Amino acid sequence: MNDLFSRGEPHDPTGVELASLEELYGLMADGEPPGPGVGRFVPGEGPAGAPILFVGEQPGDQEDVQGKPFVGPAGQLLDRALSDAGVPRGEAYVTNAVKRFHFTQRGKRRIHEKPSTSEIRKERWWLEKEIRLVGPRVVVALGATAVLALAGKPLPVTKARGPIRWPDERDGYVTVHPSYLLRLQDAGERRVAYEAFVGDLQRIGELARAGV
């Protein structure tokens, strides 16, 4: 069964009340040390109270190296698209469904490995707590892994793309992960996809402003 909710809500693994993102991240960082095929803990970043919170899949190679989310090629594309959409980057909080880079080592290269459903489910409680502590008006799923983490079940991004109501009754939006745009080889196809992504970000900004 693919529904994460059908197997019960993840329990509170801390047993303590967490009052801040710093406390949350401190516990998460201590919970699992990096090891073979698993990078270091990379927390979310942005202002608490940001009206928009973006959830990606997991940190990539550059995010693991720098210890910050969305600083690699996909993050740079997201920044450019936000600028083109007229959405101030300072109004956004960025994080990932899974907070560690999962990879296979091939020589000097680290090849991205998609996190498993069990890994996503294990981190769901932490993600939900993170969202509550940030307090955004709109929670955006960037790609299929983020959708699975937020919706509790797989939803095709192509069909779910657009506004959505998450199970916690928070307003949301589904769109592609910027890494999808980077993988497109045809320049014309990439341009059309980028324009559609900017259009999504414009609508996300409108939703966030409507919640004021």
Automatic annotation (TrEMBL):
Matching CDD domains: UDG-F4_TTUDGA_SPO1dp_like
One of the Pfam families matching this protein, by short name: UDG
Alphabetized InterPro entries for the sequence: UDG_Type-4/5 (IPR051536), Ura-DNA_glyco_family4 (IPR005273), Uracil-DNA_glycosylase-like (IPR005122), Uracil-DNA_glycosylase-like_sf (IPR036895)
Example of a GO MF term: 4 iron, 4 sulfur cluster binding
SUPFAM superfamilies reported for this sequence: Uracil-DNA glycosylase-like
Gene Ontology biological process terms from the UniProt entry: DNA repair
Domain Uracil-DNA glycosylase-like as annotated: residue spans: 43-202
Annotated TM spans: none
UniProt KW keywords: 4Fe-4S, DNA damage, DNA repair, Hydrolase, Iron, Iron-sulfur, Metal-binding
Similarity comment: family membership: Belongs to the uracil-DNA glycosylase (UDG) superfamily. Type 4 (UDGa) family.
NCBIfam families attached to this UniProt entry: UDG_fam_dom
Entry protein name: Type-4 uracil-DNA glycosylase
Record lineage: Bacteria, Pseudomonadati, Pseudomonadota, Alphaproteobacteria, Hyphomicrobiales
